[in-house]
Amino acid sequence: MQATAYTYDPGTRSGQVLLDDGTPVPFDAPAFDAGGLRLLRPGQRVRIEVEGPKDRPRITLVTLQTF
């Protein structure tokens, strides 16, 4: 699934992404760390993996979108 980085706090390594429909979804440090990133800037296109119900998805991985 793709999304756009919305917020990121380097101190906690957590933040939010915006899904393509504009829905903000938070991610935590384990999801950020799983992607091997060191920094994330708002506006960057990212690939995410989620689990859980559609109305309350939990992000398990955040990494940069590559083509």
What is the secondary structure topology, with strand pairs?
Layout: E1 2-9, E2 14-18, E3 24-27, H1 29-34, E4 45-51, E5 58-64
Antiparallel strand pairs: 1-2, 1-4, 2-3, 4-5
Description:
The protein has 67 residues and is mostly beta strands. It has 1 helix and 5 strands. Strands 3-2-1-4-5 form a 5-stranded antiparallel β-sheet. Strand 4 and strand 5 form a beta hairpin. The longest helix has 6 residues. The protein is globular, with a radius of gyration of 11 Å. It starts with a strand and ends with a strand. The mean pLDDT is 94.
Can you give me a brief rundown of this structure?
The chain is mainly beta. It has one helix spanning 29-34, and strands at residues 2-9, 14-18, 24-27, 45-51, 58-64.
